[in-house]
What does this fold into?
Amino acid sequence: MANEQIAAAQAYVNALSTGDKQAAKAVSSHLAADVTLTAGPREFSGHDIVLARITGVWPMTPVYRKTTWPAPKDAGDHVTVDAPMAAVGAGPTEVHLKFWFNDAGLINRVDQENVIGTPLVETDKLPAFVKSRVNNALANDTPIMLAYVDQEGCPHTSLRGSVQAYSDTQLSIWVRASTTGIAVAVASNPNVELLYRDNPTRSTLIFKGKAHVEPDEAIRKQIFDDSPEVEQNHESWTNGVAIIIELSEVGGATPDGRVRMKVS
It folds into this structure.
């Protein structure tokens, strides 16, 4: 395989993996007028159309940028690039590229396979990897956002550092004030939603359920004791309340797995 064809494949990878417009300009002269790109079930034909697919920022570009791509390899009648991806949410775990060339040495066919290796867990209980994300959210600098609706129908959002997995189907929150905010709102509208987002790993988890203030003193104490130390050190034991959320749905993806949870 000629060095020029290896260089052409490398120029293509540089454009695909960065979204850089100068890199796309560099690969343009290596693409045949009738080049075709097959990516999964989709096919793109023609120089300008294929070039557009590797120009600028596409949904997978931030994932590709996190990866150190290996050099193209001579595979006899074509060139290959097999790249293990950095661990991110629902992104691919591997990307495989194959390049074929015409008699002029221009790329006239590209096959791209994105391998999704992250397992999907369909369940009615919180998987261990989800519990771990929740319980370590504050320590990971990714406090969970809570959304609820007050007595007047106004929506509210707030970051909550005390969210913990209380059971296989419940979350708990220690709330510092018992006479305002969510502690009062859930009496009239218990519906809540929580969002976990870790941008560096493109991990997103969304929780839906119904919340209530827990009256049992032993459970209240347990929820307080299970909350992160910094939350306990706000010295809110006297005025705070424990809230339990009965989950109905959980969905999302992390590098450890994807989840689709429904509780009947």
Summary: The chain has two domains: 3-115, 120-262. Residues 3-115 form a domain with the Nuclear Transport Factor 2; Chain: A, fold (CATH 3.10.450.50).
